[in-house]
Write a structure and sequence with these properties.
This protein has about 675 residues and is of the alpha+beta class. Helix content is about 40%, strand content about 15%.
Length: about 675
């Protein structure tokens, strides 16, 4: 039987304060969490939503060293950007703090010390890479080398991005420190580990038996980890940025960021509610919901619960962890390092007053069961054909007609017809389905049902045609517009979790106080006699040039990434000097050049190679040059390759060219004029 709770604590994954927030973060965590919190508040539930910035870890120290500033400077900058961006999008945190706060440092230290004092950790020694030049240990992610699996260069110590293999940094071939280029040495170090295996049975009972209702992706990933058998996991590391390990003799060691960060949920609650925080974390009548992305499932469903179990003292475990999959951008994985993202603070700058459009599109494309894609074309289409043409159109028509026929005063209804009661009944039915969808974290379905309410309103207007009825029966017109106005009121409430800015604007236009979720579908949401404001458009069309500007930005980023990611091809195996000398490389002048018919890539060169006979060579560079641009140029070619036929043309040699970082080919030639036939030595 489902348990009834007195209150709900909502936590959102802490964004890493090493950069701004992008649409992937929003779709995966923050917009769903905000929708849910706003929905519960509309129901009258006791809700507290906790957020904050994750401000420790190696990437922050690396950025600080690159920029010549302190790690605190880095996190101060991005914490401010993130917090302001969330507020700009209407993410309704009850507290948004940070893991560099004094309250967090105190809470995390006490948390570690309590588990330590109750023998909840194990100590282990291990070998780890150490950068002698920099005087510090190096994490797996910051060691690069040749992949031992596919032998690609530049593989990271934890994963090869070319073949996808998970790696151990110690297995890399020719490892070096990514930041300094130094060759690391192995040095022994000692750390504290959380023995997850000690909590295996408890976690299996809690998850596999007690939470079969969890989303398939969450339950399945947890089961996979549990089936493999849990292993101890380090909770400390050698680093100079973080919360110092509160144990004597632990100089130079800090709490591992994965251990430190989730305690931020507790410390941020404690910071905001110093006298009542425990009821949100230790009272069995509090329901805890963790909103995260799929990359955080293990941390929130296995590791953090194991930490809470190890601590004891009544800490409650999450009731649900409705993790999302990933959102891609224009068919490509969002990447902070490649700048392939739509950044929230830039969106708010480029699209002022359109916070709800982004919220709507991200919810409509929510990656609830599988990865999904954000495209600017879809963004424009959903705004123009749904927000403008369906929702905005209905609300505007009703309000304009009310002003036209009743001077902006909601008319009193007469006897309701079957059409009238059917429309209101349909709104009530959709509300019930919306409640079920929201209660089970199906936000995309709930949004569709809300838009179906607007569709119901539009159909009702089209079928009743009050503008025609007004010519003969103003009393019937009054009833129609009263019913239509009740649908508008229902829409104001139904869309509030998704589109809070629109809902607030509409509420003011309706001249009505805040409404509850239960009001949806009622026949007196907007009482007769209410004087409504002059109608304003809720949404406006987004034109093609606005979308083109965003696509141009992405195109520039893609080209820049091509240039920045280019690496020279791996060196070919060594050849002996005598073999090299067998190649006869010479210089020739191009006397003629034409495209080979029916061959898009081929050009036919006629060369003056210093002999009495012209030489013909066919080369596959037609995509990179216009033939007439090459006439008169001097090129290098291999003269002693055996002739071969290409498209029926005998080609006597090979023209040399180099492939640049953008994939284009550049013909190789001397820097100054030389006699045709000169050898390259």
């Amino acid at each position: 039987m489902e348990k009834n709770f007195k209150r709900t604590l909502i936590t959102t994954a802490l964004p890493y304060a090493n950069g701004p927030v992008h649409i992937g973060h929003l779709a995966g965590v923050y917009v769903p969490a905000d929708i849910y919190a706003r929905y519960l508040r509309l129901r009258g539930d006791d809700v507290f939503m906790v957020g904050g910035s994750d401000e420790h870890g190696v990437p922050i120290t690396i950025r600080a060293r690159k920029e010549g500033i302190t790690p605190q400077d880095v996190v101060d900058r991005y914490h401010a950007i993130i917090k302001e961006s969330f507020a700009g999008l209407g993410i309704s945190f009850d507290v948004y703090s940070r893991t560099t706060s004094p309250t967090h440092a105190e809470t995390a230290s006490e948390f570690f010390r309590h588990i330590y004092d109750t023998d909840g950790f194990v100590e282990k020694k291990s070998m780890q890479f150490y950068d002698e030049g920099a005087g510090r240990f190096v994490t797996d992610r910051n060691v690069v080398g040749e992949c031992p699996v596919c032998h690609a260069p530049g593989a990271y110590g934890d994963q090869c991005e070319k073949c996808g293999s998970s790696l151990n940094a110690l297995d890399l071939i020719n490892p070096r420190c990514a930041e300094t280029g130094n060759v690391p040495v192995l040095r022994e170090t000692e750390h504290w580990y959380l023995p997850l295996d000690r909590w295996q049975a408890d976690l299996e009972k809690w998850i596999l038996e007690g939470h079969k209702e969890w989303k398939t992706n969450v339950y399945g990933q947890c089961k996979s980890w549990l089936d493999l058998g849990l292993q101890p996991r380090a909770v400390t590391r050698d680093l100079d940025w973080g919360i110092p390990v509160p144990v004597e003799g632990a100089d130079g060691k800090v709490l591992y960021v994965w251990f430190d960060a989730p305690i931020g949920y507790i410390s941020n609650t404690k910071e905001a509610l110093p006298d009542s925080w425990e009821k949100w974390w230790k009272d069995p009548e509090t329901r805890i919901i963790n909103f995260i992305g799929k990359d955080n499932i293990v941390f929130h469903c296995i590791i953090f619960p194991a930490m809470l179990m190890a601590y004891g003292d009544g800490y409650q475990l999450p009731d649900n962890v409705p993790a999302m999959e990933f959102l891609n951008l224009e068919g490509d994985k969002i990447s902070t390092s490649r700048n392939w993202a739509v950044w929230l603070h830039e969106y708010l700058r480029d699209f002022p007053g359109k916070q709800d459009v982004l919220r709507y599109v991200l919810t409509a494309n929510a990656p609830e069961t599988k990865d999904n894609d954000f495209t600017w074309a879809d963004f424009q289409a959903r705004n123009n054909s749904e927000l403008v043409a369906i929702l905005g159109n209905f609300v505007n028509r009703v309000m304009v007609l009310t002003h036209k026929y009743f001077a902006g005063t909601v008319p009193a209804p007469g006897t309701l017809s079957a059409e009238d009661t059917a429309a209101l009944a349909e709104i009530s039915r959709l509300k019930a389905e919306m409640s079920t969808a929201l209660d089970t974290f199906h936000f995309r379905e709930a949004l569709k049902l809300a838009m179906d309410m607007a569709r119901t309103g539009n159909r009702y207007l089209q079928e009743t045609e009050p503008w025609k009825v007004a010519k003969t029966d103003i009393g019937r017109t009054a009833t129609i517009l009263n019913v239509a106005m009740q649908i508008v009121g229902s829409l104001c409430v139904a869309f509030e979790p998704f589109l809070p800015f629109m809902a607030e604007k509409l509420r003011k236009m309706l001249n009505t106080p805040a409404l509850s979720w239960e009001a949806i579908g009622a026949s007196d949401i907007i009482p007769a006699g209410t004087v409504i404001a002059t109608p304003e458009l809720l949404f406006e069309k987004i034109e093609d040039d606005v979308i083109a500007a965003q696509m141009d930005r992405l195109a520039r980023i893609k080209e820049e990434n091509k240039r920045n990611s280019w690496q020279p091809a791996p060196q070919q195996p060594d050849v002996d000097f005598d073999s090299f000398c067998k190649m006869d490389i010479r210089v020739a002048t191009v006397t003629d050049c034409i495209k080979v018919p029916k061959a898009d890539k081929l050009l036919r060169f006629t060369l003056d190679d210093g002999t009495s006979q012209p030489r013909t060579i066919v080369s596959g560079i037609a995509a990179h040059y216009q033939p007439e641009d090459l006439i008169g140029k001097q090129v290098c070619f291999i003269a002693n390759l055996p002739p071969r036929k290409l498209r029926g043309i005998e080609s006597a040699g090979m023209i040399l060219s180099a492939e640049s970082s953008d994939g284009s080919l550049v013909v190789i030639g001397p820097t100054g004029p030389v006699a045709p036939g000169s050898q390259v030595k």
